[in-house]
Amino acid sequence: MMFAPLSLGKAARYYARAENHVQNGRVFPMTISEVFSAMGPFQSDFLRILNERGYLHQITDETSLDANAHSQVMSGYIGFDATADSLHVGNLVQIMLLRRFQQAGHRPIVLMGGGTTKVGDPSGRDETRQLLTEQQINANIAAIRQTFARFLDFNDGPTGAVMVNNDDWLKDLQYIAFLRDVGRHFTINRMLTMDSVRLRLEREQPLTFLEFNYMIMQGYDFVELFKRYACTLQMGGSDQWGNIVQGVELGRRKAEAQLFGLTSPLITTSSGAKMGKTASGAVWLSAHRLSPYDYWQFWRNTEDADVGRFLRMFTDLPLSEISRLEQLKDADINVAKQVLATAATRLCHGDAQAELAAITATRAFGGAAAEGLPTFILKAGEPVQVIDVAIALGMASSKSEARRLVEQGGVRLNDQPVRGPNASISEADLDGAGTARLTVGKKRHGLIRRG
Prior knowledge:
Elements (H helix, E strand, L loop, with lengths): L7 H17 L7 H8 L5 H9 L4 E2 L2 H10 L3 E6 L11 H12 L3 E6 L21 H18 L10 E4 L1 H4 L4 H7 L6 H4 L3 H8 L6 H4 L1 H16 L3 E5 L3 H15 L4 E5 L12 E2 L2 E2 L9 H9 L6 H8 L4 H7 L7 H17 L1 H15 L9 E4 L5 E2 H7 L6 H9 L3 E3 L2 E2 L6 E2 L9 E6 L3 E7 L1
Parallel strand pairs: 2-3, 2-5, 3-4, 5-6, 9-15
Antiparallel strand pairs: 1-6, 7-8, 10-13, 11-12, 11-14, 14-15
Helix pairs in contact: 12-13, 14-17, 14-18, 15-16, 15-17, 17-18, 19-20
């Protein structure tokens, strides 16, 4: 990371402005690149690690947060709404932030939005979220906990991770009392400037009054976590900056607490695409949604220019090893991509699944069918259209997409191009072992096996 030259006087003015925004309700985002070169290395392992690995974007009070993280065990949280039974790669930066927080000797709090999921976060959305039942939300939370157990250590020690549900305190709020006690600290003028609200209004997309209340609930969560768990840090993506600052200010006003906010940058690929968005849909973190093999392949397909950055952010590999890998050029960069894929899959799915995915990929690219590939079972005497098999194997998200891939010549059966969208697969296409291989593009493979 490069830092522009900055005088100590200018750095001091930025810190003064940061203090003013807390006092006067004004936001002055303070980026690390603007102050780090003047203030010297971080004292705390936590901020040093985040800076070295590229997680830092904005901090409400860098100096005090650094001092606290250096001198004591802190508690910090990130909130996740339970809108599905799995998180996805778009959530991975936040999960890794909690992991780095714990690795640096602090206690991470996973706040599950059992209450706020009933409202829906408007950030980054053009439409109202579908409202889920309480039973659906609780089932999603139970499923998501399994993913966090891979990345965090939940134990009874001072740095053991904790999972909390904000429905525990939101469900019993009395609306009038809540508005009088908490709502009076939020001005409509200020709320309208928040990206989550402003962008929806600028695009003339509907924003319900229910969603408009979301930032008030998020600020209340921060104060409640401070009271219950001595939590003094909220982290999140850059789109959450305004909401986080509101929580910091609410804590000062209601609890006379010094709270901190920290955001990570929006992660995009070198080509400008949003992280985790693929033609076949979201890259899920749960194996029941996306196989470990396909998860491995997602990371293997990383663009050359992103390999070093993703190794720093999404693996635990030492920085010295990452520095060596990102220097590889031309065809050799594929070695670094395979290391990235295996290391990232190990964190999410465990050692055995990561190694199996790597071995399976090696065999698949070598031309041999292999166990571990996504598999479609072909019933005797029942031919199936190629486009239906492609969807079942996760190679296309819809019939129209699968049909387009076939028409563009991007689908092969047993290494032969599929000639038309109405082509079928039957037992005649299986080899002596009762299998066939379907390939989309150059890197996505699946097996068809006799049932």
